């Protein structure tokens, strides 16, 4: 008889949960790979495995659990606690600090690097750059080298940082990356090498790490056998979800931490690999069993889907069967249903939005709450017409994977102040902060930053600088603020209130809509309250910022009902009773940008598969007959006539119920939609400037 908490699992899931547990002398089992299709209970099995380890005496503080997002990690921790409580009852009190090491690769990396900073020659107060900061620093360096001025055809800062990141993450040479993904940039190979070398040097002198450094430094750290052993010894078990979306660096980190695969469990589905644009490689999961010697990893596959109804699963299987290469096999389910997925044709994006709203409300009438429904799309901008319609109809929604709360200029300003006081050599933060002061332009800011960077005590040196011309009282107020922050006078999280009070007058001066922005600052203060220290707040917020929501950016609307809007990428691992996918047309999915090569096209197919397999009871794919593309020509937006995605050829139509939805009179619709689009579009853009 299985223990009560394992009763609900099927035999293979249970085998995975119990693998290597209860060996004689408390020995820890060897490597395990769980590879299986969507909705087969991989994540659920992983949560049970962690709980089962703890129930069997493993120390939760010595379990390293890595997931794809911070949200997924805390969800997993919650589930583990629930199962443990079920089994251990009140003893579960010992679990309050359980799973201290659950998080994303980047988050865990940041923590370990700070712990080991001294041993690896990092200064412990390093700050972390998000993608935008990294691009800004790349830009500063590029200017210093004179590349941008010399040649206007030199790649943009965004392209430079993308290439850099690809090279670093794939462990490939710059030439290989340029040849395969950026052939039009090949002529700049020499300059790019010079630029990247200078960029790396700039990061080091400024004591900053970018996203990629968190993995890179971590991998470097554990390539030293002694350090690898030291870090590896902190953990008895290492478990990784969504392994198909890891890159080479991540795999090599794991191999160094768990030599021979001791205590290592990875879980994934090759058919759901959708992050190759960030250098993730399907080879990691496919090669995993062979990585270990003398004994290869055990492999457990699961073939039963518990999530979706049979017709939804049949359609999703149909789509993925056309893929060129695939390891995981088709799934089966016993969830019978009469309802096939719907393939709905609508006239345009305006009708699409109206159609979705109507269906969402109809679902709610029959008891499917808004939260149990999601609208998924290939690219964040695809949902704008829908967002307008939802706002107009007063339907609350939360958008994942789109603009982030932290992208707002005023929020970045606040964080930059804190970052600057933590690490005054952080030039990007320094520029951002100094430019807030009236009278200080880029040149003066540059000089100030040069001066203080040359001093072993940068903040001391800041205090001694004669006040720059025209800064008046603002200068001493600024110096006092950063000095107090440095000394942590006010304490955490109270200090964030101090920063806000200092910042608000500047906000009033800079932005016309200062009042709305002030609400965000209050919210930032509220969010800060949830973190134990400034350092954890800055690190974790930078790595995995909260998503923008409909009426309260940043803070999830916990007790209200709201519809989920999400990019397919951000919907990974999740499920809803009803799922709508919009713009299921060629040009959107596959994206125009993803049709260049077979591997790219195959990744787009997997994206569609990931989206479809999020649905439990109802799935609706919508194809507008025409859609807007944004700003792709000199005139800005334009209409494009669309056809159904090539991933659903005529042979697959049998799996769908087709519907069309022409309702509103064409002329009237055209008129009103045009006006709304212009008004709101401009407003949305200006909000995030
Ligand atoms: P994805 O590939 O999308 O990440 P997954 O394989 O991780 O999916 P889960 O999210 O763990 O799948 O599970 C999918 C659904 O199936 C969840 O609702 C889960 O509760 C349910 N489920 C998993 N295993 C069982 C089981 N043995 N009995 C009943 N329900 C199950
Ligand atoms: Mg999962």
From TrEMBL:
Family in the record: Belongs to the helicase family. UvrD subfamily.
Domain UvrD-like helicase ATP-binding intervals: 15-309
Species: Shinella zoogloeoides (Crabtreella saccharophila)
One annotated GO molecular function is: 3'-5' DNA helicase activity
This protein's source sits in the domain of life called Bacteria
Q: What class of enzyme is it?
A: isomerase
Entry GO terms, CC:
cytosol
| Reaction equations catalysed | ATP + H2O = ADP + phosphate + H(+); Couples ATP hydrolysis with the unwinding of duplex DNA by translocating in the 3'-5' direction
Q: Name the keywords, alphabetized.
A: ATP-binding, Helicase, Hydrolase, Isomerase, Nucleotide-binding
Name the chain's protein.
Answer: DNA 3'-5' helicase
């Amino acid at each position: 008889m299985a223990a009560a908490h394992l009763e609900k699992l099927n035999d293979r899931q249970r085998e995975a949960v119990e693998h290597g547990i209860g060996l004689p002398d408390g020995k820890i089992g060897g490597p395990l790979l769980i590879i299986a299709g969507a909705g087969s209970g991989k994540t659920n099995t992983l949560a049970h495995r962690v709980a089962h380890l703890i129930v069997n005496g493993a120390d939760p503080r010595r379990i390293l659990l890595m997931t794809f997002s911070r949200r997924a990690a805390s969800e997993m921790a919650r589930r583990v606690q629930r199962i443990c409580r079920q089994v251990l009852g009140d003893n579960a009190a010992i679990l309050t600090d359980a799973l201290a090491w659950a998080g994303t690769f980047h988050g865990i990396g940041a923590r370990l690097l700070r712990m080991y900073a001294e041993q690896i020659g990092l200064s412990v107060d390093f700050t972390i750059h998000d993608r935008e900061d990294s691009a800004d620093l790349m830009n500063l360096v590029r200017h210093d080298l004179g590349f941008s001025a010399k040649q206007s055809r030199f790649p943009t800062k965004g392209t430079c940082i993308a290439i850099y990141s690809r090279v670093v993450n794939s462990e490939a040479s710059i030439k290989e990356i340029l040849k395969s993904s950026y052939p039009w940039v090949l002529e700049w190979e020499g300059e790019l090498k010079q630029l990247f070398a200078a960029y790396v040097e700039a990061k080091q002198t400024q004591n900053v790490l970018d996203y990629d450094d968190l993995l890179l430094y971590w991998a470097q750290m554990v390539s030293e056998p002694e350090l690898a052993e030291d870090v590896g010894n902190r953990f008895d078990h290492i478990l990784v979800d969504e392994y198909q979306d890891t890159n080479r660096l991540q795999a090599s980190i794991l191999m160094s931490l768990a030599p021979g695969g001791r205590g290592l469990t990875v879980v994934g589905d090759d058919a759901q690999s959708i992050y190759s644009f960030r250098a993730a490689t399907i080879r990691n999961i496919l090669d995993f069993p062979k990585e270990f010697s003398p004994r290869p990893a055990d492999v457990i596959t699961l073939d039963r889907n518990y999530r979706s109804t049979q017709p939804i699963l049949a359609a999703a299987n149909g789509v993925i069967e056309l893929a060129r290469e695939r390891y995981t096999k088709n799934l089966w389910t016993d969830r019978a249903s009469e309802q096939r997925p719907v393939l709905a044709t609508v006239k345009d994006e305006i009708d699409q939005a109206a159609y979705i709203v109507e269906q969402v409300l109809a679902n709610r009438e029959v008891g499917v709450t808004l939260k149990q429904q999601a609208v998924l799309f290939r690219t964040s901008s695809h949902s704008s017409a829908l967002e307008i319609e939802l706002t107009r109809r007063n339907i609350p929604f939360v958008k994942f994977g789109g603009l982030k709360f932290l992208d707002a200029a005023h929020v970045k300003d606040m964080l930059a102040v804190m970052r600057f006081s933590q690490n005054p050599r952080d030039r990007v933060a320094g520029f951002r902060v100094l430019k807030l002061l009236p009278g200080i332009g880029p040149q003066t800011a540059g000089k100030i930053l040069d001066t203080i960077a040359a001093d072993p005590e940068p903040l001391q040196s800041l205090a001694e600088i004669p006040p720059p011309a025209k800064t008046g009282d603002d200068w001493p107020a600024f110096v006092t603020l950063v000095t107090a922050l440095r000394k942590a006078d006010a304490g955490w999280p109270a200090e964030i209130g101090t920063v806000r009070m200092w910042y608000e007058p500047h906000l009033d001066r800079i932005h016309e809509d200062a009042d709305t922005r002030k609400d965000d600052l209050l919210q930032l203060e509220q969010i800060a309250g949830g973190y134990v220290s400034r350092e954890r707040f800055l690190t974790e917020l930078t790595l995995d910022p909260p998503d923008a929501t409909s009426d309260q950016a940043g803070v999830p609307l916990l007790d209200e009902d709201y519809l989920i809007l999400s990019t397919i990428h951000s919907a990974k691992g999740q499920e809803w009773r009803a799922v709508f996918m919009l713009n299921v047309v060629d040009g959107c999915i596959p994206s125009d940008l993803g049709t260049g090569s077979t591997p790219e096209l195959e990744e787009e197919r997997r994206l569609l598969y990931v989206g479809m397999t999020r649905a439990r009871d109802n799935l609706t794919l919508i194809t507008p007959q025409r859609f807007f593309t944004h700003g792709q020509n000199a005139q800005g937006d334009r209409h494009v006539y669309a056809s159904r995605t090539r991933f659903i050829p005529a042979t697959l139509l049998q799996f769908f119920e087709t519907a069309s939805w022409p309702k509103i009179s064409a002329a009237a619709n055209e008129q009103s939609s045009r006006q709304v689009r212009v008004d709101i579009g401009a407003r949305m853009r200006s909000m995030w400037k």
